[in-house]
Amino acid sequence: MSKPVNSKVTGLLYIDDIKIFAASKSKLERVMKMFESSMEDVGLQWNLKKCAVAHVKKGVQVTAVSGGRVVESTRIPCLDDGERYKFLGVLESVRQEDKLVLECAATEYLRRLSVIWTSPVSDYNRVIDREARKIVVESGGRHLCSSNALLYMAKSRGGRGLRSVEMECKATKMKGAVRLHGNEDRAPGMVREFEEPAARMGRRSNFKEAAKCTEELGQELDLEHAQGIKKEVRRCQIEKLEDEIRNQRWQGRLVTTRLEDESLSADGCFWWLTEWKNCPSHTIAGLVGLYEQLLPTRVYTIQKTHTSGEGEVRCRLCGKAPESVAHILSGCSALAQSKYLSRHDAALKVLFYELLYDEGFIDEIPPWYSPDKPKPVYESENVKTYLNVPIYADQQEVRCNRVDARIVNHMCKRVMTLEMSCPWVNSRTRKDE
Q1: In angstroms, what CA-CA distances link 351 with 303, 342, 405, 406, 410?
Q2: Are residues 154 and 75 part of one domain?
Q3: Which end of the chain is less packed: N or C, by CB atoms within 10 Å?
Q4: Where is the Reverse transcriptase domain (predicted)?
C-alpha cells in the first residue's frame, strides 16, 4: 500500500455481500452478533453456505489454531491455509486473486461462446473477443482469413459490430479513472488515497493503467478535463480500426472504397447489417467474405493464398478474363443472362413495388425477400405502369426499346422511366455516362 488510510475500516458492505474485520475471536463474535441483530430487523438471515472466516497473521493467511468453528453459535467454518473466499464475485485471500479470476472467467467465457456459436442464435446478439476467433471460424461464423478489424468495426461502417473484451476492458479502465478522480464521495476518496501516490511512485495503479490505455489510442489522458470521455474513446477506437482496414490492401479494399466514396452513403450500403436483425450467421459470413474478396477464385488462390502455383487465372466459366471477385459478380458473360438478370430483376422489383404503392395500385409493399413478382402492366383511370414491356413507335425506329419500368400519368401528362443496372464499383461512372 502506498500510504495508510486515515479512516478506520471495520466492515465493507455492498448490497448483500459483507466483509467484517476484527482483531480477535471475541471481537469478531461481538461484531457478528451486532450484524445479525441488525439483519433480523430488516428481515435478512445468514447464508451459512457462503460464509467463512479467514485468519490473517502479519499479512499472511494461516490456519486457525482450533482448526474447527470460530463461532460455534453460527457454525461458520474457518478457511485453511491457501483456501480462498469470494467477495463481490471475486476470489480473494489476503489480496484479490486477479490472475486466477481472469483464468476462470476466460474458461467459462469460451465454454459459453462455444454454445452460442454452435446454436441457431441470431448474429445480431452475439459478442466476441480476441481469444475466441478460432471458435467462431470453426462454427462457420467467419472466414479463416477474414480481417480481425472488421469483426470489431460498427455494422453501420461495414463491420460485424462485435465488441472486443480487450477494447471494452481498456475503455472501462479509462472511464473508471475519470470517475474516481472526479468523485467527491468518501468511499472513492479513500481509494484515491491509495491510487494517486501509487501512480506517482510507479507502482500498479488504475490511473497508471488508464494513462497507458489512452496512449495506445494515440491520445493523452487529462483527468481534469475529461468530459465526454466515453464518446471520445469510442471515436478513437473506430479511427484505429478504420486505419487498420485501410492498410489491408486485399480484405479492406472494397469496404474502404465504399466508405471513402462521397457519392455513396455508408448507411445505405450497409443497412442490412443494422436493420436485418434475424439474418443468419452463415449469410452474413458469406456476404462479408465477398466484401473481403475471399471467394476461392483463381486469382485468390494464386495471388493471395499461393495454393495453386502459377497456373491459369482465366475464368472457368467464360475463359475471357482473370477469375476475380469483381469478374464473377459483374463481368462474366456466361452469367449475364442468368444470375445477373435474376439479381437485376430482384433489385428492380423492390423499387417498382414502392412506385406501385405510391400510385395506389397495391395496399402494402411486400418484403424484399418475397418470391412474389409484379405484373407487367398495371392500369387505372389516370395512371398506367409498365415493367419490362417494349416500346413501339409508328413514325421512327427505336433501337433501345426495352425500358426497365415506365409510369405514364395521363392527368399530369408526364412519363417517368426507371432504368436500373448493378455495375461494379469501378464501372459505375461509365454506366452513368
Answers
A1: 39, 15, 10, 12, 22
A2: no
A3: C
A4: 4-89
Q: Which domain holds residue 420?
A: 348-427
Single-letter amino acid, residue 155: K
In a domain, 381, yes or no: yes
pLDDT of residue 20 exceeding 60, the answer is yes
Both 240 and 126 in one domain: the answer is: yes
CB-count burial class (<10 Å; 0-12, 13-18, 19+) for 431: exposed
**How many helices (H) and strands (E) would you count in the chain?**
16, 12
- Tell me the three cell numbers of residue 385: 405502369
What H or E segment, with its residue span, contains residue 165?
A: helix 165-182
What are 62's strand-pairing partners? Answer: 55
Whole-number Å distance between alpha carbons of 375 and 389: 11
pLDDT of residue 9: 58
Residue 107 in domain = no
Q: What is the per-residue pLDDT for 48?
A: 73
The strand pairing partners of 12, in sequence order, are 19
The separation between the first and the last C-alpha atoms of the chain, rounded to the nearest angstrom, is 73
Residue 170 and residue 190: Cα distance in Å, rounded? 23
Query: 183 to each of 6, 88, 383, 387, 426, how far by Cα in Å?
Result: 18, 21, 68, 66, 54
CB 411 within 8 A of CB 392: no
- Of the three residues 224, 259, 275, the one that is the final residue of a domain is 275
**Are residues 244 and 147 part of one domain?**
yes
Please state, in angstroms and rounded to a whole number, the distance separating the CA atoms of residues 332 and 420.
18
CA distance 222 to 241: 23
* Domain-terminating residue out of 253, 275, 297: 275
Total of domains in the chain: 3
Contact 117, 136 (CB under 8 A): yes
Residue by residue, DSSP assigns 282-310 as HHHHHHHHHHTT-S--HHIIIIIS--S-S
Q: Which three cell numbers stand for residue 425?
A: 464499383
- Local confidence band at 219 (pLDDT 50, 70, 90 cut-offs): confident
C-alpha 238/C-alpha 259 separation (Å) is 13
Enumerate residues 6+ apart whose C-beta is below 8 A from 74: 32, 36, 46, 48, 51
Specify whether 263 is located in the same domain as 208.
yes
- The model carries a pTM of 0.61
Q: How many CB atoms lie within 10 A of CB 411?
A: 8
Judgement on whether residues 26 and 162 belong to the same structural domain of the protein: no
Residues 66 and 176 in one domain: no
